[in-house]
Amino acid sequence: MHDNVLLHLSSNSNHSDSLPSKLAKLEARMAGKSIPAAKPLPDASPSSTDSDEDNAGDFMIQASASSQKRKTFQMDESREEEKLDQEGRTTKSSRGMGQRSRGGKAKEAKRPHSPPSAKVDNGNGAEHKRFSEDERLKEDLMTLNARCAGLGEELDKARSEACQYQRTCQQLEKEINDMKEVQLEKERKRLKVVSDLLIAVAKGERQEARLRVRQDSVRLGNVGVMRAGTLLSEVWEDGQALKDIQARLKSLLEQKDAIEKQRKLLKKKQNDKTDASENDQGLAEEECIATEEMYRARIFSIKREEENTLRDRERYELEKACFIRELKRIRDEDGSRFNHFPILNKRYALLNLLGKGGFSEVYKAYDMVEYRYVACKLHGLNVQWSEEKKQNYIRHAIREYNIHKSLVHSHIVRLWDIFEIDHNTFCTVLQYCGGKDLDAVLKSTSVLPEREARSIMVQIFSGLVYLNRRSQRVIHYDLKPGNVLFDEAGAAKLTDFGLSKIVEDEVGSQGMELTSQGAGTYWYLPPECFDVNKTPLISSKVDVWSAGVLFYQMLFGKRPFGHDQSQERILREDTITKARKVEFPTRPSVSADAKDFIRRCLSYDQMDRPDVLTAAQDPYLSYVKRKP
Ligand SMILES: Nc1ncnc2c1ncn2[C@@H]1O[C@H](COP(=O)(O)OP(=O)(O)OP(=O)(O)O)[C@@H](O)[C@H]1O
């Protein structure tokens, strides 16, 4: 805005810049009066001007030039006014200028013009005319001088205003930059405070975890080191709780034995008293029956106690499994090269280790850009691997990333980010699930009530349906308890798409070729994946089988096929290839509908097994009862 005004004023000043020199010339001419007085004034008519250029002389030329300039000046003024009006920014000074110019015009209008006279024939008339011309020129000169001075003043004022504006702008710019710097510094401090607090909390949690483990190890046991020759190996040493349980069981057994002995003695006594009197016999029999009843009651009570103690032992085993898991986690955390609370990629503050997989460590972390907890999965390439193997692993991870990042569903863990840490390590950033994974749940409770297990199945199938309704269908292929996570609210979410397959559009109803045979966790894979005679054709029915195994495990605390077998033994003994019929334990009691659903999911032949979309519609998984 100010620039416009400036430009405008400076253009005016340019215009008036020429004025002083012109005025000086005019003044000089007037002072010198070098106009030849004897020369008659030319006829003012346009035709006479044309015909008599010598007679007209310099003065007339100047005069006509002067009036021409006046006109131009007036035009300039009116243009200037128009322009200012248009911009709606008429300053006070320009208003003054306008008034002045209007005053000037008024004067101009009042000023008697010297009409070209047809009868200029005597000296007096010419003298008079020259005099009035001189007067007019003087007046013009004064007006122009005043105008010139006014414009000069305005120019100075505008220049000083411009300088002021410039200084203000520079000042403001500096203030903005200072404020930005302060803001950045504050942000840095804030993040530092946040990360320091998070780290302090995480450190506290670490200490607490180690203290708990130390305390629990007295009760639950510990891993000790055993030396056999030069070989050192780790062995589990039972804790006091198991020793107490076993001592209690032993004592109960001894008590039971003692009572049994006494019972036998009593029986023997009864037999020996057969020769006593009838009366005595009656009394003795009464006594014997009462004693026998007492022994029986005692044995019942011992058995009850025994059952309770066995339950305690079961609980102990579950606690021990969790304890060992925690021990392993702490040991992995202590051995991790990321255990010093680093900030990765300038935004992820690593806190505590959540767990370690085959080739990865998963840390709980805080995203300081999005302000949320995340799980950072650090994939480490083994430095001893060949370059080809490393490239293979990276290709595999990128493939997994590309599949997983596009999945957005409430029952699928979100994948937010991926970045490189160093030449041999990269990190994927996942949605943090604050609950346990299903594996940990099953290690701590062995079986789940049917209602709870069914709800988890409904959620798993919700995720699977999403995978099968997308334009690019996905077979998860690695559904197992460790790949079902729970968030803080208890919602189940599928994760780990490392083995998943994309079903291409042209795949027929028979399914797609399984090219990566041998991968996966065998307890959870269907028979078709073990077919060695031909390249198996697979479909979403693989995930239906795995879901059936998961459901069975949640309800009965064990896997339906090869539960106690190692992966290697499952392959060697063709356990799954022989898994034609699923058997159910009698306990715990589970509804017939649940068993039927499991049977459908674990149909040996793919043709008989429902696909994901059909299984998800199963009445057993529907909370809304359908009308028959
Ligand atoms: N998004 C997550 N939120 C919270 N915990 C997670 C998350 N992802 C993984 N974990 C935990 O981190 C641990 C290691 O996970 P990871 O997926 O690396 O292991 P895994 O599945 O046991 O191994 P692998 O992938 O090699 O089979 C597990 O205990 C898992 O519960």
UniProtKB/TrEMBL annotation:
Compositional bias of kind Low complexity: 1-19
What protein name does the entry list? Protein kinase domain-containing protein
Swiss-Prot/TrEMBL GO biological process terms: chromosome segregation; intracellular signal transduction
| Organism the protein comes from | Selaginella moellendorffii (Spikemoss)
Give the Protein kinase domain ranges. 348-621
Pfam families per the record?
Pkinase
Query: Ranges of Basic and acidic residues compositional bias?
Result: 73-90, 126-135
A molecular function annotated in GO for this UniProt entry is: ATP binding
Chain residue ranges for the region called Disordered? 1-135
